[in-house]
Amino acid sequence: MSQYADPIVRTSAGAVRGVRDDFGEFYRAIPYAAAPIGARRFTSPAPHPGWSGVRDGTRPSPTAPQPVRDFGRLDMAPYFGPGWVRGEEYLTVDVRTPAADGGSRPVMVFVHGGGFVTGSNRAALYDGSAFARDGIVLVTVNYRLGVPGFLDLKGAPANRGMLDVLAALGWVRATIAAFGGDPDNVTIFGQSAGATLVGALLATPEANGLFRRAIIQSGSGTGAFTPEQAQRVTSTVAAALGVEPTAEAFAAIPDERFLEILPALAGLDLRTSTATDPLAGLSPFSLVLPVQPADGLAAGPARDVDLLIGTNTEEGHLYLVPQGDLESSTEADVLAIAARVHADPTAAITAHRAAEPNATPGRLRSAVLGEALFGAGTARMAQAHAQISGGRTHVYSFGYRSTALNGQLGAAHTVELPFVFDIADKPWLHGDTGLLGPDPAPAGLATRTHTAWVTFAGTGNPGWSAYDPHRPAAHVLGS
């Protein structure tokens, strides 16, 4: 039982009760849109009708329908959270605030990753206590995933998961002052698929005025599918379900069935005459856009938005080390992944070999994968933003090597998250199969990383020089 009296905040939709603790106040499962049930799974998010009385905001939200993800020997439960927790009303936000007291604090809105098919704001990694401790109002967002969120269907708006995030930002704009936040000082940040969504919002006209700053952690400014690629996925899904590829036909199909047919999409070849597969076969879902976000920034709020963007130095290790594929990789495996993601695979491999002459096939495979998934699209986004925003771009490279899995995991995809959220000392992140491995996190790295994010949210400067597109360099976090 809490030693504090439960706080209540009144919003335009109704009152919500939270909990008060040593870090401030916590309000959970607040709906920002109507429940996406039945045919509404394939429409734009609708306004929530509101509620009478006081809503219980002390318990976590249901989550979007999603499959179980297995990462071999690595415990990724802190990243993926509890999986599918059933319930209709999952288009919700959690709010962590120092106090719902009429203050005007910087607001940070976090969009989770998970390959556009998994994840939720219930994941343990997204504990916002340190942000509230340091004067930030943190909002974490759930959005539609998989078929309801991202499958391109006739009769349905595209990129419905991104439309959900836009709706959540609209909720923040209208409501966050009641929770002690400044609606004119909002930073949206995301990781992996969430970071790719953030990048797309920078190029989205409807996002104008909804945020002042953005942080892209291991996302891609070139991670969207072309319409042709999206239709290949749609045709495969419709065939697996035995229905026409329309929103009307899909509306009657239960969510369980959408998850059952996901194995039929595994490894789907999305290469076309004009495009390689931006997700390297790791996910059959992404944004569907006529041009990549990095090439369309002028259409959205990007030029007026401060941007912090970066990647980890061994992103590809997450997809090879836990499965035992780093050591077993062959030259043929390197060529196969290069052919999937490059128009000229031989030239790509040659460039990676030149950068790391003594690399094993496994390290080359990881480098090709990491560059294709995150590195190249991040560099293109940083360049594009720097050229239109006038010194508002800051770039980082996160290099701390996790000692998980016999010291092999390294600076893999997701490893920066415990440092951003300043929870790198949590026991459940350690041990040989924990994300950070058996060794303690280096003293001060979490403080430095987290402080950079907080400072950026407050001022637009994380503590190092702006990126120069003519002399590109990244600020290194971790060795």
Name its key features.
single chain; 479 residues; alpha/beta; Rossmann fold; 10-stranded mixed beta sheet; 3-stranded mixed beta sheet; globular
Supply the CATH class: Alpha Beta
Shape: globular
- What would the average pLDDT be, to the nearest integer? 97
What does the oligomeric state look like here? Answer: single chain
Low-confidence stretches: none
What distance separates the N and C termini? 43 Å
Secondary-structure class:
alpha/beta
- What's the Cα radius of gyration? 21 Å
- The CATH topology corresponds to Rossmann fold
Main β-sheet description: 10 strands, mixed
Structure, described:
It is a single chain. This protein is an alpha/beta fold and 479 residues long. It has a single domain, classed as Alpha/Beta hydrolase fold, catalytic domain (Rossmann fold). Helix content is 30%, strand content 15%. The protein has 15 helices and 13 strands. The protein has helices at 77-80, 129-133, 146-150, 160-175, 193-202, 227-241, 247-250, 255-260, 325-328, 331-341, 345-355, 361-389, 404-407, 417-420, 445-459, and strands at residues 8-11, 14-17, 19-21, 24-31, 54-56, 92-97, 105-111, 137-141, 181-191, 213-217, 306-312, 393-398, 475-477. The strands form two sheets. Strands 3-4-6-8-7-9-10-11-12-13 form a ten-stranded mixed sheet, with helices on both faces. Strands 1-2-5 form a three-stranded mixed sheet, with no helix packed on it. Helix 10 (331-341) crosses helix 11 (345-355) and helix 10 (331-341) runs parallel beside helix 12 (361-389). It is globular. The mean pLDDT is 97. Residues 6-463 form the Carboxylesterase type B domain. Belongs to the 'GDXG' lipolytic enzyme family. Belongs to the type-B carboxylesterase/lipase family. Its EC number is 3.1.1.-.
